[in-house]
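S.,

As promised, the 2-acetamido-2-deoxy-beta-D-glucopyranose run. Input:
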Amino acid sequence: MNQLALISLIVLSSTLCQLGSSLSPGRCPQTTEIDGGLNLSRYLGKWYEIKRTDLIFELGLRCVKTEYTVESNGNVAVNNTGVSLINTQVSVVGTAKPGTQSNVFAVSFFQFSPSAQYWIVDTDYETYSLVVSCNDVLGLFNLKNAWILSRKPNLDSDIVDQLVAKLKAIGVETDKLTTTAQDCGN
Ligand SMILES: *[C@@H]1O[C@H](CO)[C@@H](O)[C@H](O)[C@H]1NC(C)=O
Ligand SMILES: *[C@@H]1O[C@H](CO)[C@@H](O)[C@H](O)[C@H]1NC(C)=O
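Predicted complex:
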């Protein structure tokens, strides 16, 4: 990689960090399986975003929801919707491809774009889901993002606290989490 590319990457990474992604030295943590494996059919459906590390493409978005449906080829279609700062409904559709671990997918939102890791760290299917995406940067750093999702537009604060503690244990800088406003009704 040439120097310019390296500098651009560092600038990009630090911008992402200021926005809330968590950049740490070293490689991504080893993903762990969910007890008994992920039951995808139970995981499908609609989830409300309760907290997130802010990503560029999510800046200012409120009422963010994600809907997962299974495609005939076994991939999972991801439909993220939200309401922008100027009150328009936005949606972005992606694909999650299953990997060797039942709870780790490779998600891409644009054709030919590099895919990002989508690791369902913990879920009880009916109440909450904890998702981490970690990607290695140059083999030197790793960039983590995290989402706390709920089946309802709100989530019990005790559960949120437990999930935040789990994120901390994984090495996510939890002070970078922001709360997503869910004030649009259902
Ligand atoms: C997954 O969940 C569905 C619906 O609750 C259930 O019918 C199915 O047996 C479960 N699959 C496994 C492998 O546990
Ligand atoms: C994504 O969900 C939104 C809101 O439910 C819907 O309007 C849109 O048509 C969906 N997009 C796709 C491709 O299914």
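The mean pLDDT is 86. Residues 79, 81, 91, 93 surround 2-acetamido-2-deoxy-beta-D-glucopyranose (ligand 2) (CB under 6 Å).

- D.
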